[in-house]
Amino acid sequence: MTEYDPYGGRGRWGAPAAHTHDSYGYANPYAPPGEPVPPPPVGPEGPGVFPYPAYAWAAGYGKSGPRNGFGVASLILGIVTAVGFLLWPFAIVTGVLAVVFGVLGRRRANRSAATNGGQALAGFICGLGGLILAVLLAVVFLVGRVGDDDGPSDPEPGSDEPGYSIVLR
Predict the structure, then answer these.
(1) Could you tell me the CA-to-CA distances from 22 to 12, 16, 101 in Å, in that order?
(2) CA–CA distance from 43 to each of 39, 50, 134 (Å)?
(3) What count of other Cβ atoms lies within 10 Å of the Cβ of residue 107?
(4) DSSP at 154
(5) Residue 126, class by beta-carbon neighbours within 10 Å (0-12 exposed, 13-18 middle, 19+ buried)?
(6) 116-128 pLDDT, tens per residue?
(7) For 130, what's the count of Cα atoms within 13 Å in the CB-facing half-sphere?
(8) What are phi and psi of 145, to 5 degrees?
(9) Which of 51, 138, 161 has the alpha carbon at shortest distance from 89?
(10) 25-83 tens-digit pLDDT
């Protein structure tokens, strides 16, 4: 089956149609009639070179990223300590860990091995604040228990104090 040509073998503007086609079958509108289509130009990186950068996993093989674990751990433990200081035995442990991880995270950030020095500092501050509150609460709790060392006892004979027990009749 033949294709219908509305211009009768001539180009749209009356000039003879260029019958030069590239390898995909598309006509080159800028080629003079009868000349073959030239190959594409070679880039500055030379022939056969992939012009895009390699994938990130291939370029970074063997290198490690920032080591932000201490800063993240310090911030999480610091927040847990600051919020949960009422559970003072637990808060003292997490507060000490938050302070230690915060110091280690700041040292890594100062050596440029980590990128989250601010997180480590925030964890250190939250952990220290929660640790101080937990220690104060523990002191108040333990001092209150020391003053009440005898425990409940019977009232002295002859006193009007009912004591801790109530007798129902």
Answers:
(1) 20, 18, 65
(2) 12, 10, 68
(3) 14
(4) P
(5) buried
(6) 999 999 999 999 9
(7) 32
(8) -75, -30
(9) 138
(10) 666 666 666 666 667 777 776 666 665 665 555 555 666 889 999 999 999 999 999 99
For residue 122, the one-letter residue type is A
Tell me what percent of the chain is helix, strand and coil, each rounded to the nearest 5: 45, 0, 55
- Cα separation, 3 vs 138, in Å, equals 95
Q: Which residues partner with 21 through β-bridges?
A: 27
DSSP assignment of 27-72 equals B-TTSPTTPPPPPPPPPTT-TT---SPPPHHHHTTT------HHHH
Cα–Cα distance between 73 and 101 in angstroms, integer?
Answer: 7
